[in-house]
Amino acid sequence: MTYPGGDYDIIVIGAGHAGSEAALASARIGLKTLLLTINLDSVAMMPCNPSIGGTGKGHLVREIDALGGEMGKNIDATMIQCKMLNTAKGPAVHSLRAQADKKAYQFRMKEVIENQVNLLLKQQEATEIIVEDGKITGVMVNTGAVYNCQAAIICSGTYLKGRIIIGDVQYDGGPNGLFPAMYLSDSLEKNGIALQRFKTGTPARVDAKTLDYSKMIIQEGDEHIVPFSFETDQIDIDQVPCYLTYTNPETHDIINANIERSPLYTGEVVGIGPRYCPSIETKVMRFHDKDRHQIFMEPEGLNTNEIYVQGMSSCLPEDVQIALYRTVPGMEKVEFMRSAYAIEYDCIHPTRLKASLESKEVAGLFFAGQINGTSGYEEAGAQGLIAGINASLYLRGEQPVVIDRSEGYIGVLIDDIITKGIDEPYRMMTSRAEYRLLLRQDNADLRLTEIGYRVGLISENRYQKFMAKKEQIKQEITRLNQVIVKPNPENNEVLKSLGSSEIQHGLSIGELIRRPEVKYQQTEVFDPERPLLHWSVVEQVEVQIKYEGYIKKQLQQVEQFKKLEHKLIPPELDYAKIGGLRIEAAEKLQEIKPLSMGQASRISGVSPADISVLLIALEQRRRSSDKDGSNHE
Amino acid sequence: MEVLLQNEDTIAAVATGMGGAGIGIIRISGSEAVALGNKLFVNPRGKTLAAAKSHELIYGRIVDPTENKDIDEVLISKMMGPHSYTAEDVVEINCHGGIVPMRKILKLVIQSGARLAEPGEFTKRAFLNGRMDLTQAEAVIDIINAKTEKSLEYSVAQLEGRLSQKLEELDEILVGILSHMEVNIDYPEYDIEEISYDFVNSQILGLLSRIKEILVVAETGKIYREGITTAILGEPNVGKSSLLNTLLMENKAIVTDIPGTTRDTIEEYLNIEGIPFKIIDTAGIRETDNLVEKIGVEKSKALLNQTNLVIFMRDISKEMSAGEKELIELLKNRKTIYIANKTDAISGMDIAIPEPWIPMSLLEDQGIETLRQKMLEMVFAGTVNQDADYLITNTRHIQLLETTQNSLKNAINTMASQMPLELVSIDVMEALEALRGITGKAVGMDIIDQIFKNFCIGK
What we know:
Helix content of chain A: 25-40%
Shape of chain A: globular
Low-confidence stretches of chain B: 1-7, 220-225, 251-265, 283-288, 385-389
CATH topology of the largest domain in chain A: FAD/NAD(P)-binding domain
Strand order of the largest sheet of chain A: 16-17-18-19-15-20
Strand content of chain B: 15-25%
CATH architecture of the largest domain in chain A: 3-Layer(bba) Sandwich
Oligomer: heterodimer
Distance between the termini of chain B: 55 Å
Number of helices of chain B: 16
Shape of chain B: globular
Mean pLDDT of chain A: 94
Number of helices of chain A: 20
Number of strands of chain A: 24
CATH architecture of the largest domain in chain B: 3-Layer(aba) Sandwich
């Protein structure tokens, strides 16, 4: 029996990292939102590594924060260790990563959700979407309730027809011992949404008291913690260390001896796994001349003994797992608390999504997170936020927010998956961004706060602070370019002590900072009137001055890029009717239906000549309609 | 409505191959065209291009402003938009010194800020800017497709053999460097060796010297494996070798021999007023007997099919042999120049030499100039299937190699000024993109593919 459950503006299915951001965004924008989860204890759960951020991913979290999302604040409040990666390299690739207390992370997010106005969180399994005239109108759940809605966002993670694989032990299951969602897939397919099968895996969780850390190398956090959120002033915590150890030939022997018991090699696993997240058996088989692999021990929280064994994901049978873990120094007596497993799940083809993350098949139906074929909490959160914003704008009849590739990693991520399609779970990497120098983690606020404010996710107070920061940066750069350092012996002495060359004539401080060896702080002696500025302002000033030439060059590239990006293609264009397009190109274009010439040019199989042909065809179309127009006058 | 593309960048390319009198045109289009032309053009009476009237043809020279070096004597004109081919400001430089100066001028134009035009881009702009009628859209599309196809065809054709292998090697090294840089950036905590600037530097210096080698060959007009494929045929001892040597001698400075891929074929390169000829010289034909007899009718036909032009030579002092008759039959309907050699041996005899035979005496150094003119004439008259597109494509390739070179030099500078790795990678990426412009292969996922293939990473 079914019964009417009530009316909502937006229903979000799944309360993981995508679902939490999506529901919070739509509720904060002011829409009545229902958030469904298969289990209330799994809100914002981290079923794999206990960390947020990393290369590319840290950038995503900062962008989520700049847009008014929750992830940055949540990790700031619950981290137990933090590290800025890549500090030996330039600012564009500095990346924040924090170890989270998993439970604390979940509880805080759940609390924020529960206390959010306009938002109701419920434990129910969505089993069917209700579609009328190509539009979403409701969602049915396992208890029989039917909720009406105008938009829905599916953030089902790895739950859809989830299948757990531990060697020859295989069963239907969701992540982390939870139930799978066995019904929603069929409903999606019935409504024309094609599915594919992906796979991912996670290592074992082991009991800390069975580890011998004295045989491992300690890995500490940074002395000074840089917060993720632009709203967090500072973080003062006692940090918990991680530990590093290595596999050895003995480990590899066990794998080699048991490889035929791995379902990855027997062909039982059909899902496509990510290359960047190989199981230990894959690493050993593919790189057999490598005599050791890194293994990191990462604590899962402050109030638990569970340790995440990074580097040892596996879907070998449990007995083999235990045996091979015990070959590793410091793990000789290890006891498992949870085994490593692989999970197979249904996901959609993201090329069937618009840039707003709305389905091309069903109006008002949005998708975000692992269901779109991505992997990672941060990738999920980013999409969830965008889907939440765009579902709200859809309801209001407004244009969606589309962040382009020059504005943010979020833009790169979404454009990549909807344009190029994916054949393995998609992970963010800084190498995927062509304007990496502009998309720094330090300037995510400068890039995106404006958008967050416009859609109503950034408070007036924060916005004013942001505007003030922007102004301070500008003023300080102008000022530094005007303060002249005289070529006298004292000044040259200072420069020499900095390992810099002497000056023959007056130079501005700005010009001095352009020298690679000179830092902003070190020029204070030349600058008696220097104002007291927040470290984040100083950081911007320094980066913008030091890399000015390169930044300008990338900005010029962006200008070229934007030209094609701003040449929009009418969605109703019939590519089959354009003479001169190669068949392959026409088919791909018809499938993707790119928003702009720029997007069209990134579709694999569409050549520059096809783009030229398309430009001509569009111009032809425009001129003929001009002609029609003038006839009517 | 023309607003749409007004802010487009300025493009340049060789707009024609070598025309009737060996004149080639370099066309520049876009908002910077006039400023750009102005920088490079010097008129003896001090008239500048900027001050010239639209559509006025002025005489002068192109001078490299950085070195104040004379490049070529030219006729230049500007056509202000919208009254030009593309409806943008256009500058056309007519140069007549052959391919070498033409390339130098194009290089200068590109260095001064223009971008090398894509195949068919002028026509595309002309249409988009409303210069062409709606009904011409299909034709424009055809032109773009044809030019692109041609360009790819040539790149494939040229990329056979050694050159292709060389480019492939450059590509591989660049991808190797880039993927190593990227893995260091994206996977900082894995035990993967950090790529050192010393290593990158030495790799790039190696790349630069390889590119220089290729460019040296290319720049002198001896274009790697292309040119108008020409065969000299005839019976033994009619003077084929002497002819070849004479032609080559006169071209000493611009002759090279790049050994072919097979041992019995020698390719000699010849440059007549900037037009490259590739003389296929099979050992068999050169040294010994009758072609047909030697390699069979089918093979002969196949060989002839690979040639654009045949120079058929016979000894006029002798009776025509059966073999010669057979060959002449085979050459019917092919672009052939007929040479009657050894006129010195028949002097005083009453032997008429009918058209189209060219009388020649290699001994007395007669007829060579006529032959050279005839070869050029056949090219310019379009008799010989010589593609302007070929020359254009080739110029394009050289240009792209030079861009690769510049980006790599930038990378070296970036490292020298102690800039971080991700900035060096921008330069190296630019180099790879330029190089890929030659093969038409897109730069994309393959860097990431290389990362996962070559490095063991992941949690």
